[in-house]
């Protein structure tokens, strides 16, 4: 996939209040984390309203017990970014399940002190991803879905046994 250029990003982010800051951060992050891609899509808020927002979608490399795992994430940037923190989710693939914990809810939403205490310019996407990598390395947000058990052999439903 072609590298997204700043001009294309600026067009996509035309309704963002701090477009240039947002573009700079996105280009910085996607140059470091090649698997994250900027995507414009409709984000549906809890109240049912939706807005076209930029998300960074892809995986971040997390080291856990000596192995590196690519954790799928989606970081939604509000149109007031970077003065408001991103809304972050773990996006498990079909072979993964969400592991709820103090940082992840059942919907995959990510809760971190870094997000809660977000303050521009000290807080940025790059720093957020660094924190995620550390936290997920201690407490992975997803686990492999158990492989399905072979189905039980099917028995013919034959009613009650014949008693003679």
UniProtKB/TrEMBL annotation:
Residues 3-146 form the UEV domain. It comes from the Eukaryota. Residues 145-164 are annotated as: Disordered. SUPFAM superfamilies: UBC-like. InterPro entries: ESCRT-I_UEV_domain (IPR052070), UBQ-conjugating_enzyme/RWD (IPR016135), UEV_N (IPR008883). This is UEV domain-containing protein. It comes from Ataeniobius toweri.
């Amino acid at each position: 996939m072609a590298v997204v250029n700043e001009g294309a990003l600026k067009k996509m982010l035309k309704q963002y209040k701090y477009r240039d800051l947002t573009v700079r951060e996105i280009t910085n992050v996607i140059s470091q984390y090649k698997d994250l891609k900027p995507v414009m899509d409709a984000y549906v808020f809890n109240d049912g309203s939706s807005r076209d927002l930029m998300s960074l979608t892809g995986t971040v490399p997390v080291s856990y017990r000596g192995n590196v795992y690519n954790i799928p994430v989606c970081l939604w940037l509000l149109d007031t970014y970077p003065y408001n923190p991103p809304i972050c989710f773990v996006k498990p693939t079909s072979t993964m399940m969400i592991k709820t914990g103090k940082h992840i809810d059942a919907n995959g939403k990510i809760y971190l002190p870094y997000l809660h205490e977000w303050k521009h310019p000290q807080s940025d996407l790059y720093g957020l991803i660094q924190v995620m990598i550390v936290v997920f390395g201690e407490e992975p947000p997803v686990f492999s879905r158990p492989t399905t058990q072979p189905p039980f052999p099917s028995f013919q439903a034959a009613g009650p046994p014949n008693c003679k």
